[in-house]
Amino acid sequence: MKPAHALRPTTAGTILVVDDEAALVEAVRARLISEGYDVRVAADGPSALARVEAERPDLVVLDLMLPGMDGLEVCREIQKRDWVPVLMLTARTEESDKIAGFAVGADDYLTKPFSLRELAARVRAILRRMERAEARAAGNGAESLRRFDLLIDASRRRVFRDGVEVSLTPLEFEILLALAQAPGVVFAREQLMERVWGYRDHAGGRVVDSHVARIRRKLGDEAAEPRYIRTVHWVGYAFCEAPGEPA
Fold first, then answer.
1. Angle (CA) 74 79 85, round 5°
2. Could you tell me which residues are beta bridge partners of residue 216?
3. Does residue 232 sit in helix, strand or coil?
4. Is residue 9 over pLDDT 50?
5. Quick one: pLDDT band at residue 10, thresholds 50, 70, 90?
6. Is residue 218 exposed (0-12), middle (13-18) or buried (19+ Cβ within 10 Å)?
7. Cross-strand bridge partners of residue 153
8. Per-residue CA distances from 100 to 88, 107, 165 (Å)
9. Nearest 5°: phi and psi at 20?
10. N or C: which end of the chain has fewer CB within 10 A?
11. Which residues partner with 161 through β-bridges?
């Protein structure tokens, strides 16, 4: 997993806004500038990728529907090159679209129309999460956890199973780390959202479920016979205190 890069010291961070709706871009740009961010813009997928490559922003605010290349493909390409957090915007309301965005590496999701205040809050939450990761990488509270045959390296944000690295997205890593730091403790889905995303969303349970399912798949964990993460029905999830705990 690629480490987060340090925020620019001269501003609250550099943000690339990618959308082909000029009025929306200008409104978002003005609000983020008022929050202290250095804001760049792009109107299509190819130019967005070029700006990410050249400027390495701290965060990308990315529309799903773009000319030339849709936002899912842009997000996928960004994560292939060098991890940059992505806040995805879309006019689509289906939950499957949100899950698809997270599957390609998006860090958060806002459905249009949205308030600029909510957008700014989501941006702050993502950048705070980056800062926590950077603090761990610098050795401030860094730790390596061993859980059965898993090694979870919090400072380098890497996970190994039997010595073989398991590739997790930043959100997947944060969820696994939160659970593994407190074996046996049951986390409600809303608690995981608050701890990992930085806010509670009572409609976000399905998104948490989707992330946990991908973590299990990558770890070779079976929901029916869990080795690492067990489901607590009607509540949430807990890291197993012993391998093979009943689901």
1. 90
2. none
3. strand
4. no
5. very low
6. middle
7. 144, 158
8. 11, 12, 24
9. -100, 5
10. C
11. 150, 164
